[in-house]
Amino acid sequence: MSAWELELAFATDVARKAGEIIQAGYGRIEQIDRKSRRDVVTDVDFRSEELVISEIRRRFPDDAILAEESGSHAGRTAAEAQRTWVIDPLDGTVNYANGIPFYCVSIGLVADGSPVVGVVLDPSRGDCYQATADGPARLNRDTVAASTKESLGDYVVSMAIIGRGGIWRERRIARSIRITRRMGSSALALAYVASDLGGGPWWTVGRRSGTISIVAAPQPQHGQLLDLIRQVGTKVQTRRP
Predict the structure, then answer these.
(1) HSE (CB half, 13 Å, CA atoms) of 167?
(2) What are the two backbone dihedrals, phi and then psi, of residue 20, each rounded to the nearest 5 degrees?
(3) What is the structure's pLDDT at 208?
(4) Separation between Cα atoms, residue 119 and residue 105, nearest integer Å
(5) Is 152 in a helix, a strand, or coil?
(6) In the chain, which residue ranges form alpha helices assigned H by DSSP?
(7) CA distances from 192 to 146, 172, 183 (A)
(8) CA 57, CA 65: separation in Å to the nearest integer?
């Protein structure tokens, strides 16, 4: 049994409750605001986040919280071994607001700077992806693993290169990949890979999300994707374990 079984069960239960709020509001959004030129936030994002935060506060009051919409929330105590819940109450809001059923609730726990629990719930399909640092990845309680296809051309690749020239770089890389997709929900797209990041630690509490790059792939194809990204002039910083 995982050392994080209690936290995993908690995160799963809370994600399902948040998913009920999301599904109840699907197609009946009361308010949509722009966060940026390309991103939006709805009243459902806030209601889902409020529920998740309140549940964490009730069950783990000493833990800190890092939330997509409301930012950082300090824990009741500044414990030496800091634990932070990282939550996105509705990842894929643009899809959600436009009636595209590809979005999720994402809840993770970071302890001592390392992710130890992760739950991604797809409420429109009832799919729940779960993982702990000391256990396997699961989909609806069944163990899942990355695909064993041999050729990168046999995969569907979800790709989004952000920044100046990103679309041009994506097109260059697409020449070597048979099918590419922009899924619209990063957490759910990563869960579909059913694999960890083979390039070393990628998340730290004090690092801005805009400076973080992620490449997730089955081990044989991970290096190929990194090489393609480098070839189009995108800087990739990675550490292999």
Answers:
(1) 0
(2) -65, -40
(3) 52
(4) 8
(5) helix
(6) 5-25, 43-59, 93-97, 166-174, 186-193, 219-231
(7) 9, 24, 11
(8) 9
Q: How far apart are CA 151 and CA 156, in angstroms?
A: 11
- Nearest Cα neighbor of 91 from 136, 129, 137, 133 is 129
Contact of 27 with 129, CB cutoff 8 Å:
no
Whole-angstrom distance, CA of residue 103 vs CA of residue 120: 10
Task: Tell me the C-alpha distance between 95 and 169, whole Å.
Answer: 24
Q: Apex CA 113: angle with CA 111 and CA 115, to 5°?
A: 60
pLDDT digits 0-9 by tens, 2-54: 999 999 999 999 999 999 999 998 887 766 766 665 566 788 889 999 999 99
Q: Copy the structure tokens of residue 22.
A: 């999301």
For residue 193 the two structure tokens come to 């890979």
pLDDT of residue 212: 57
Residue 239 has pLDDT above 50, yes or no: no
Share of the chain above pLDDT 70, in %: 81
Report the distance separating Cα 209 and Cα 66, nearest Å.
Answer: 12
CA 24 to CA 17: how far, in whole Å? 11
Residue 217 tokens read as: 């792939």
C-alpha–C-alpha distance, residues 125 and 222, integer Å: 28
Any residues with CB less than 8 A from the CB of 196 and at least 6 apart, and which?
Answer: 216
Least trusted range by pLDDT, from 69-78, 105-114, 220-229? 69-78
Most distant CA atoms of the chain, gap in Å: 52
